[in-house]
Amino acid sequence: MTDMATAVLPREFYDRDPAQVAKELLGKFLVRKISKGFLIGMITETEAYLPAGDSAAHSFKGRTKRNASLYTEGGHAYVHRMRQYHLLDVVTESPERPGSVLIRSIEPVEGIEGLINGPGKVCRELRITQGLDGVDMTRSESGLFITEGEPSSRKILVSTRVGISTAKDMPLRFRI
Questions:
Q1: Is residue 37 within 8 Å of residue 95, measured between CB atoms?
Q2: The whole model's pTM is what?
Q3: What is the 3-state secondary structure of 57-101?
């Protein structure tokens, strides 16, 4: 795991347009450090949420106590709840431009089994809870981070976002 810890994606990776970050997260490894080792999945599906003009983005109506983590530097975790599920977004851009990327699905690499298809399942299987909201995912010490993956020749499929009621016609869902 030491090689993987040194390949943690740097802040500069996230300090860009959410749609670009969402595409480039595909094939990377989402890593959760737990007391018994690591839970690792390859990211296979993402959704981008834009910092301006995106009515589905949690930052659309401005900063609140609930979405405060969106207003941090790119590379921080934004863990929020939808009904009984925790969901994980990675913050992109800057505190003045609070975009994010929702991690929708992963394939198991270590410590988990079976395709994890759904953002609530990602958090459940990797034990991601509200306690990780705001952690700096550019540091392996945080216990939740993303590393370089393995090169993939798989085609990226682009479609509209799912599971939302507004801005659902925007082609900001990416998967391999």
A1: no
A2: 0.91
A3: CCCCCCCCCCCHHHHCCCCEEEEEEECCEEEEEEEEEECCEEEEE
